[in-house]
Amino acid sequence: MLPMNSSLKYYISVLGLLPLLLLSNGCSESTSSDEDDPSETESPLFTSKSPSATGLSFYNRLEENIFSHENVLTFENYYNGSGVAAGDLNNDGLPDIYFGSNTSPNALYKNLGNWKFEAVEDPILQATDRWTNGVSMADVNQDGLLDIYIACGGPSIDPEKRRNKLFINEGNFKFREAAAEYGVDDSNWSTHSSFFDYDGDGDLDLFVMNHTTYWGVRIPEVVELMKDTANMLLATNHLYRNDGEAGFTDVTIEAGILAYGYGLGLATTDINNDGLTDIYVANDYSVPDFMYINRGDGTFVDEQKERTRQITYFGMGVDVADLNNDLSPEILVVDMAIDDHYRSKTLMASMNTQLFYYLTENLKLPHQYMFNSLQFNDGTGHFVNVAHQTGLAKSDWSWTALMQDFDGDSYKDIFISNGIRRYPRDNDFRMAMQKAKDENGGSVPNELKEELFAMMPSIPLSNEYYRNRGGDMKFDKLRSAFGNDSAYTYGVAYADFDQDGDLDLVMNNIDDTAFVFENTTVNNFLRLDLRKSENGPSDYNAKAYIKTPLGWQYQELSPIHGYFSSMEPVLYFGVEKENTVEEVWIKWSNGSWSKKENVNVNQTLTLVASAQNMTAAGPDVLNKSSNSLINALSTSNAPITHRHYDEPYNEFAAEILLPHSQGRLGPSAAVGDANGDGLDDLYLGGGKHQAGALYFQNPDGSFDLAPVQPWTEDFRSEDMGALFFDFDNDGDQDLYVCSGGGSEMLQYDASVLTDRLYENTGNGEFTRNSSVLPNWSSSTKVVTAADIDNDGDLDLFVGGRTSPAAYPTIPASKLLINENGVYKDKTIEYFGTYKLGMIAAAEWADFNGDDKLDLVLAGEWMPISLYLQGENTFEESGASYGLSNTEGWWHSLLIDDFNGDGTPDIIAGNLGENNKFHPSLEHPLFLFANNFDGERNIDIVLAKEYHDKLVPVRGRECSSQQMPFLKDKFPQYADFASASLEEIYGKEMLDEALQFRAVTFSSTAFMSSSDGYEAQKLPFQAQLSPVNAFIAMDLNADGRKDLMGVGNHYITEPETPRYDAGSGFILLHNEDGSWTYTPSGLYCPNDAKDLKLIRRKVAPPLLVVPNNADTTQFFELQLSSTTKDS
Hints:
CATH architecture of the domain at 51-423 and 458-531: 7 Propeller
Keywords: Signal
Number of helices: 19
Largest sheet: 5 strands, antiparallel
CATH superfamily of the domain at 51-423 and 458-531: YVTN repeat-like/Quinoprotein amine dehydrogenase
Mean pLDDT: 93
InterPro entries: Crtac1, FG-GAP, Integrin_alpha_N, UnbV_ASPIC
Low-confidence stretches: 1-36, 1120-1126
Helix content: 10-25%
CATH topology of the domain at 51-423 and 458-531: Methylamine Dehydrogenase, Chain H
Strand content: 25-35%
Strand order of the largest sheet: 33-32-35-36-38
Protein name: VCBS repeat-containing protein
Pfam family, one: FG-GAP_3
Radius of gyration: 31 Å
C-alpha cells in the first residue's frame, strides 16, 4: 500500500477530487467535438428507397464453408465485401448502377428514371467465376461509352481464377470481356483499380491495387522474402501504361512503385497541387499507406513519411478532398477503431509494442496508430493528422470514407460505412481458438470448428454521417441522417440518380439487400460535366474552381473514392441559397485553363475542353503570396549549428501504463547578456550525456561558441529549464539550470537530478557554485526569479516536474529566498507543502494590485493555480478568480496585459484538443495510482465514465502486463470489459490511491475581467498539439500584442498517438479580443520544446526553437519591434 502523506492529502483536497472521483454522471466516451450534440429531432437528410419501389433487389449473399478454405479463418479477407459503381452507361443522362459480389453474381441495373431501375441480365457482367472486390467505370477505349473493370481476389490460390476482368461497352447495354486483349488481366489478389492519365499523353492508364497474403507471416520473414523480385512481383500493385492500339504495358518497376502492401483504399488525384495526378493507397496491417507523388517523368516516389507525421494502421477506405475550402485537399483514411468501451475492449487487441518499435525504429517506417486519420493540409505540401481533434478518430469497423457536400451548403461533409459480417478479432474467440490449437497439436478438429465459429460476434452497425460545421474543421455527428440503417455496409457510391441536383447514395451490403438513399436537401447547386470532346469521354482529373459570395470551392474529377467503388463522373457543387456562380474556372487535364462568368445555378453544365477559349493562367486566388513576416533559416544559413541529443531509453518497458514520456520533456534555452557586451547570448540545454552549450553573439549578429563551457562536467544530467539572472547582484548574468528526466535517470546516482547554479565570474566565464543552493534532488523543469520579499535581490521558484519511475507521485518544488547570496529553502513556511503539483510552468506577477508579486503555476493533472502573496505566505486563490475546474495537462504559461485593463492576463498552453481522451467538466479523465498488485512499483490506472460507472481506459491485455493478477481475476476479455473500476481494483485500493482528474486539454487565454478570469479557447491551429512555449509581441503594428507558439510531444505509449501535429503558429490579437490564425514562415514540425527571442543590433531579431533529439531551428523576424521574452 502506498502511504498518503499529509501534504498529498492537502493537495488532493485542494483540488476537490475526492468527492467527485467515484461519482460519475455516466455516458460512453464521445468522439464528437466539445460543442455537441446536434439535434436528434432533425429530419433525416436521406430517405430510404425500398427495393419494391425501385426494383433494386440486389442481395450480396456471402456463402461460407468452415470445413474448406471459404471462411474467414482460412482467408482473412473473407468479410471485406465488394463495391458498387455508378455511371451513365448508355448516355441517356441517368446514372446506372453496377454491383460487385463475392460468392454471388454481380449485377447491373439500368436507370429508367423517376427512381425506377431494371436488372440487365448479362452472364458476362455477372462474372460468377470471380470473387469481385472493387468495381470501376471509365471510358477505356475513348469511344464515348463508359466501360467496367472489376478487381478480383478471393480465397482461391489459383491465379487464373483471380484474373481481373474488363467489360468493354459496345452500346445498348451490350458488353464484351477484354481484359486479356488489353493486357490488364492482373492475377494478383486485386482489390481495386483506377484509370487516370499519369504520363500526360491524353489517354487513360491503369493502376491496379493488390493485397498480399502475408498477414500470417512474421514481418522480418516477409521483409526477407521481398528481397526476391519474383516474390515482390506477386505481391505488388501494378501500373499499366496505355499504349493505344498496342494495349497496356506493365510499367510497375520502371515507374518506381514495386512494393508489397495490403491495399484496400485507393485515390488517384493531385495531392501536392503540382498539376500531376498522384496515387494514394491505404494499406491494411503493418505496411504504411503509400503516397506516390508523380514526378512528371513517368516515375513516382513514395513521400508518405516526408509529408505526414502519423497515419492509420489498419487502413481501409480513403478519400481526398478539400474540407475547409482553402483550395488544398485533405486526406481521410478509416480504420476499425471502436468508440464503445465494451466492444473496443472485447473486439480489438492491444498494439503489439515490440512490433511498433520494430516498425518505427528498426525499419524507420512512419508511425501508425489504430485510429482513423484525417490529414489536414497545412498549405506547405505537408499534412498533420487531426482526426482526434475533429472527433473523427473512431467510427467503428469502417470501410467507405467519402468527403462530399451532401447538404449543399458549400462545405464537404463526411460519410463512413460500417459493419463486418463476423468479428474474427474478438479477443475471447481468439483465445478459444488458440486453446483448441494448443490442445490438438496445432490444428482445430472439425467437430470443434462449428462451435468456435459461432463464438464470433456478428453485430450490424449504423453508417455514420458528419456534417461540416462551416469549414472550420468542426463536424457534427448526425445520428438521424439515415434513420435506422444497421447493416454490414461496404462499398458506397454517390450519384444524382433522380436528376434533382443533389447526391444520392447506393450501398453494397453483405447478406442484405442493397441500400438506396434519396438526398432531400433543397439547397441550390451547380453540376459540371467535363468532357474532352463533344460526345467524348469525361476529362478525368480535370479540376474545377468556382467562386460565389460564400467563397471559393474546388474539386477534381476522379470517380474513385471511398472503398472498392466508383462515383458518377460529374462534379457537384452546393451553393446554399446563392442564385449565381460568379466564376467557374476549369483546369483541364492537359494543363490548360478556361473560364466562365455569372453562371446560373440549378443546372448541369456540360463543358467540352475542345470547345473552350483557353486562358494562360488560372484564378489569382491560387497565387498564394508567402508571408514575409518570418524567414526560416536553413541549417547552412543558421547562425548556430546545434543538435540536441537525448539518449534512447524506453520508459514504457517498466512503466507499461505510463501515458507519455517523462524523460523527453527538454530541452529549454536561456537568453541573456552573458559576457556583458550588451548583446543577447544563448544557452542551449543538453540532453542525457550531452552538455549544454553557450554561444556569444558578435556585433554583426553572428554567434561563436563561448571558449569556457564548465557544464561539460555535468554532461550526465539532462538540462530542462534554464535561466540567466544576477543572483549575487554583481551586475553580470549568472545561470541556473534545472536537472530533470524520467526513469532513465535512476541508472545514475542522485547527483544527476541536482539543479546547478553557474556563477558568472566576469566576461562570460562561469563556474559551478554548489554552496549557494540547498542540497536536494528532484526532477525539475521550471525556474523563475523575482524579488518577492523586496530586499533588492532575486529569489527563485523551482518547479518539480516529475518523479522518475513513480508517476504520478508529486515531486518536490522549492521556494528559495536569497539571503545575502545564499538561497534558503522557505517552501514550507510560505506554501505549507513541497507538493505543489507536476509543475510545467511558473510565472510571477501582481494579480491583485497590492504591489506584491504573486505566483501562477500550471502543470500535469493540475488546475491553473494562482497563489496570492500575503505576509510570508502564499495562498491558493484560483477559485475566487474564476480559475477553478481548469485541471489539465498544462505545458506553458505567458503572463501579459493583452486587453489593456492593467491586470495580467494568462495564456496557458495545454495538451491541445488533438488527443484521444477529450476530457470535459461533465466527463473528466481520471487517474488512480496505487500498488494495486502488491509489487514494488506504483501502478497507473486511467479511467473514464461509461454507463454510470468508471471504467479503465486501457484494456485487459496491457493492464495485465503491468498487473498480472488481472488475468486470473478476469479470465475473459468480456469479463474485464463489463467490470467497473471498483470491481476490478476494489473500493479500498481506489480510495487510498493517488487521485487526479483532468477536465480540459484546450490551450486557453484567461482574460481578466471584473469577475476574475474568463476562459477563451485559442483557435484551431493552437489546439493541434501541446504548446510548450509562447512569445508575445505586436507583429502587425496595430498596438496589440499577438502570440507566437510552438510545441509537440513525440514520445507516447504505442496505443496513444504521439502529439506531433504542431508546426508553430501566429495568432493575431483582434480589436474585439478574439484571436485569428495567420500563416507565416514559422514552421516547426519537429519535437519543439521551447521558443526564445534574441535581439540583434544590425540584423533582424531571431526566434530560436530547440527540438528534442533534433536540430535547433532559427528564424528571422522581418520587423524591428521589440517584445517581452517569455
